[in-house]
């Protein structure tokens, strides 16, 4: 006969917050539930490292809770295989353990929030909903900053957050160092001499062989590569270790090279090539093993530590802007605009994603590098996502649904609240400008400016309409030309269209013809 509990508390895979108020007191009548669910493993095709990381982190969290004296039920895919959905599993457990109260934290994904709200409405027992206690802004505060369908400026929001939470401030209203944003200092290309200074990343060796066996046994379709030793953090201490490693070794030059890309490191340094100076904390943050306040406090402590390697204001500000600014901003955009946001397609993009996005078998060096790295590590940094894979999809007119599904699946840190505004909004401009004031479209010139990819590419970055020309060049002009009615009214695009119309009719025709040939043969690029 199963033990009886009065209260069941659900912990989702991205709610691994050891500092949550739930855990301050032990209660033998409260049962905590963590469950590997088929519905979560299959709603998109996930990277195998992503599923392994979440499942391993859930297991470690369950073990930690048990060690702290809590009553915990951790179910794996074998245990949940007969339950097609989370509500079906909850119904069984409520009956089995004679549960009188169900508690859950607000999910950060619309799909799950609706699913649990519907379950609560129909439930015969009392259901209570709690904050996740993770973000700077509480859920009910978002409406004070974000309005459905309205264009919002991240910079203005970021400054309000700096003032409210007194982060890098000289006084109540003045930014430390005299300016709010140091982005102009953070757009450097990695030169040959810079490569030898790139730090080796901190990698782990978490055994996920049992998870891999379960995925195979249950025929869970995945993408990408992995081994039985997962390099990502799967518990809070590993996440803290990764944070400290970044603050010591990455932060001193993070800002300078946060937009840079390279394919030139020796084979023995491949790990450095994909990590560069980036923190790689996004999975630990988005699973809530780390909280953003802890991350920012640690970074600022290193910035102020006279014994640490010197970190200037541009480096720390660039990092703080990502966490306090951008991360909180996209969450607000998501909740202000869902569920409509998931269907936006302002540019009427309809083309299918090329099959080589799942194999990296393309002659375009920049895309080959970004995609193969993503398949190998379930990770690419923000410029690779925005200005390499994202830029190509934008220029080629790939349907945003397909772009979303690829990004949601391939990246270890991809949860819909953060992925959707970044991809459908910032990257694909499918929201019509709610996130960004202009489409982030770029030719091969940008890639050449910020990386060393072009030197080893089959295509020629300095050519535009020739048979060997970089596809991004003609695709860029084709994109800007076909959307001239949409974009020409934006003053930020005035120079672009002035340059386009300075070209002769013959030049424009040749460029558009080259682009159309590339699009017609997109699988062979």
TrEMBL record:
Matching InterPro entries: Crypto/Photolyase_FAD-like_sf (IPR036134), PhrB-like (IPR007357), Rossmann-like_a/b/a_fold (IPR014729), UV-DNA_repair_photolyase (IPR052551)
Domain of life: Bacteria
Protein name, as recorded: Cryptochrome/photolyase family protein
